[in-house]
Amino acid sequence: MPLLNVFDISGSAMAAQTVRLNTTASNIANAQSVAENPEDTYRARHPVFAAQLASHMQSGQVQGGSQQAFAGETWGTPNSGVHIQGIVESEAPLQMRYEPEHPHANEDGYVAYPNVSVVEEMANMISASRSFQLNVEVLNTAKTLAERVLSLGQ
Amino acid sequence: MTINFDNALGPHAEALSLRDKRTEVLARNIAHADTPGYLARDLDFKAELTRRLEGAQPGTQVPVRRTHAGHQPLRDPSAGQDLVTLKYRTPLMGSFDGNSVDTQTEQALFAENNMQFQASLRFLNGKFKGLVSAIKGE
Fold this sequence. Notes:
The structure holds 2 protein chains of 2 kinds. By secondary structure, chain A is of the alpha+beta class. Helix content of chain A is 50%, strand content 15%. In chain A, helix 1 (2-29) packs antiparallel against helix 4 (118-150). By secondary structure, chain B is mainly α. In chain B, strands 1-2 form a two-stranded antiparallel ribbon. The two termini of chain B are 20 Å apart. Classes of the chains: A alpha+beta, B mainly alpha. Chains A and B meet through helix 1, strand 1, helix 3 and helix 4 of A and helix 2 and helix 4 of B.
């Protein structure tokens, strides 16, 4: 019953948004963390979302199961949840601040602060939170509908 | 004389099963609102219902011939009647990451589909009630 797949789909989306919230929390928490070497300084992290095919979810097989994969794509079950491909570190330049008294300052008196953009992180946080709420809403609706179906004919 | 459930229930059983599928498709669109490159999809309810009620095989209108061993079949033939053809939504606005999900549109369609699902359920319930009273003969 496709209605029950909604639980998997919305559930995976909620999990993905939670990871996004986690990275945001980590980025904001570490916005002022400095390290001895600029190479070791914290860099903003962001998850990469991707769609995952149902057949891959079930069998874990990518090669050889082409027929299966295509059946999943064009039609029987469109059960592809959100899959986190990985977490990438931002390649934006580090923020160099002039703090000559700082123990980690370089010879010119600059300290490398993380490349976290707090404004961007806040926007990300709101977006993740809204998406999460929306998926909870969808899940609740699916649950109500499934309950109604169960009481059909009574 | 036999009671044929398919005749007794009319198109509502098929309609409910399609609504069920559509709920899943729309939920998937909403779940992928933040996935880069994801294209929103939907099914043509009217066309699908007509096809199911007339008993046509999916894809009979446009046959696709496979002329090479590497060609992928469009659909899994063993799944038969249950298949649904999904179409791509035309986005209102483009986005930088190639995602074509418009959350508000999807949410509205989800709510609409929800109502229609419940309407189909209610029709079915009415049919069942009718059958039950016919059986009891009260």
